[in-house]
């Protein structure tokens, strides 16, 4: 039995843990988000209305943009002004295609406005100058008169925008410049100096953090530059095989690959623990956030697509991976303040897939949907049954509990392929109301949604839960996620 004790609330689960990432990569920005005002696809100011409606429904709190690797080759001045006058460039990282720059700073903030989401911009350290980064921040945030504020106004935007989060470089250990940790740490100190706060609102500065288990990177960054940063990023992708040359298929896999994927995604817990422990040494008050600004599954690309576009299908396995990561982020939310799944539309572990005017919600989308009640809630450290580790029910079951607005939200995932997980929860009070009881399940491990069958994997109401006083019981079948919210 899982026991929820009164007062077992330990820390807040920042809604930004449910953040998204949209890069100029393949069909994420172009086609996925931006179709242009003249498109026959319904749009508002060039942004797809169906995509906005779907993303608003899962309460997207913020969107990281413009990359990724793209960020360290992005020159923002090419993406402002009348569209016809914008110069083009080549997207060297992702397929070598022409970047039209039709989607730039103004379009990004229009997207955020439509989504009611916050900004998280990644600045260019790899191939950009300090002055270029400084000018972008001035262009976006300075009220009043200055060369950059005047330029913004000439392009039709009188008021500055809010820029709560700014990343100084991306993967500076790799595509962002192949720097050593000390080289980057010194660059970070220099560049961040000119990420100036012009308005009342502070800008939360995020330094490029480690890849996977590169603990030395974290150590050097924290010892050299912690006092200049608000957040340190972490990137970790789940590959079924663990091999970048042959990652594994998104839809054609057997039981072994399922279990390997689940085991590899659980490595996130070790990464959070060990990077946090290093951060604790330098920052015992947990002022600096650990920002997991790229995570998710990465498979071999969908056959027949441009391999540089990183397109992949998304099955119930991806939904389970998402839920397990949410659970780990919740537990570590005292340090983990934001995460950004890669990526929002049409790329890697996407929420949405598009094909011309058609749109499909993936199983991962529905996992995000099932967890919206955890946004900004208090993490509740519910006690597991004797013999189980915290957060676990037997071998394949996992739970996470939060509290908000006088109600508890309990999510339980069965990451196994056979057998039920029995959830048996003791609450600190009598259950009087069931606000929500939903289940996301699938007929097989490879079940997914297609444009012709968009609702194959979709949550439905959970039948058969039992309440007796303060006791709640329900069953979670293999490869399923259940969320029950009770007051
Ligand atoms: O998300 C795809 C790519 O993965 C990003 O551009 C890069 O930062 C990472 O290597």
Automatic annotation (TrEMBL):
InterPro entries the UniProt entry points to: Alpha-L-AF_C, ASD1_cat, GH, Glyco_hydro_b
Keywords, in A-Z order: Carbohydrate metabolism, Glycosidase, Hydrolase
Transmembrane stretches, start-end: none
Signal peptide stretch: none
Gene Ontology biological process terms in this record: L-arabinose metabolic process; polysaccharide catabolic process
E.C. no: 3.2.1.55
Gene Ontology MF terms: alpha-L-arabinofuranosidase activity
Reactions catalysed: Hydrolysis of terminal non-reducing alpha-L-arabinofuranoside residues in alpha-L-arabinosides
Domain (Alpha-L-arabinofuranosidase C-terminal) ranges: 293-480
Enzyme class name: hydrolase
Subunit structure: Homohexamer; trimer of dimers.
Family statement: Belongs to the glycosyl hydrolase 51 family.
Protein name from the UniProt record: non-reducing end alpha-L-arabinofuranosidase
Organism of derivation: Catellatospora bangladeshensis
């Amino acid at each position: 039995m899982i026991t929820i004790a009164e007062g077992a609330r330990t820390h807040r689960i920042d809604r930004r843990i449910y953040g998204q990432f949209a890069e100029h990569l393949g069909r994420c920005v172009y086609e996925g988000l931006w179709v242009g005002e003249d498109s026959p696809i319904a749009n508002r100011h060039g942004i797809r209305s169906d995509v906005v409606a779907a993303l608003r429904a899962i309460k997207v709190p913020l969107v990281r943009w413009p990359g990724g690797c793209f960020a360290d080759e992005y020159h923002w001045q090419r993406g402002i002004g009348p569209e016809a006058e914008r110069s083009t460039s080549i997207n060297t990282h992702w397929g070598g295609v022409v970047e039209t720059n039709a989607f730039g700073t103004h379009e990004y903030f229009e997207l955020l406005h439509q989504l009611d989401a916050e900004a998280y911009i990644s600045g260019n350290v790899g191939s950009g100058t300090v002055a270029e980064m400084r000018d972008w921040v001035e262009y976006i945030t300075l009220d009043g008169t200055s060369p950059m504020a005047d330029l913004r106004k000439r392009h039709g935007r009188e008021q500055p925008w809010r820029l709560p989060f700014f990343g100084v470089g991306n993967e500076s250990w790799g595509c962002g410049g192949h720097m050593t940790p000390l080289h980057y740490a010194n660059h970070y100190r220099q560049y961040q100096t000119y990420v100036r706060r012009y308005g009342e609102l502070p800008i939360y500065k995020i330094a490029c953090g480690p890849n996977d288990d590169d603990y030395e990177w974290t150590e050097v960054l924290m010892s050299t530059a912690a006092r200049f940063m608000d957040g340190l990023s972490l990137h970790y992708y789940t590959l079924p095989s663990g091999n970048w040359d042959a990652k594994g298929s998104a839809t054609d896999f057997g039981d072994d690959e399922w279990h390997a994927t689940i085991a590899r995604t659980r490595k996130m817990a070790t990464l959070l623990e060990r990077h946090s422990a290093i951060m604790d040494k330098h920052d015992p008050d947990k002022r600096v956030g650990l920002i997991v600004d790229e995570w998710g599954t990465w498979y071999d690309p969908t056959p027949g697509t441009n391999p540089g576009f990183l397109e992949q299908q998304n099955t119930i396995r991806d939904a389970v991976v998402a839920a397990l990561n949410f659970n780990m982020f919740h537990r570590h939310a005292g340090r983990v303040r934001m995460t950004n799944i890669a990526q929002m539309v049409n790329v890697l572990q996407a929420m949405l897939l598009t094909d011309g005017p058609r749109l499909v919600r993936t199983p991962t989308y529905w996992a995000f949907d099932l967890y919206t009640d955890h946004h900004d809630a208090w993490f509740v450290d519910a006690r597991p049954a004797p013999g189980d580790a915290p957060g676990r029910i037997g071998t394949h079951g996992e739970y996470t509990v939060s509290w908000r607005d006088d109600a508890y939200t309990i999510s339980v995932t069965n990451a196994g392929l056979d057998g039920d997980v029995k959830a048996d929860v003791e609450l600190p009070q009598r259950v009087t109301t069931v606000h929500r009881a939903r289940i996301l399940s699938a007929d097989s491990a490879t079940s997914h949604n297609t444009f012709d069958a968009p609702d194959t994997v979709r949550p439905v109401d959970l039948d058969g839960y039992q309440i007796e006083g303060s006791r709640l019981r329900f069953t979670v079948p293999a490869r399923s996620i259940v969320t029950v919210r009770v007051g």
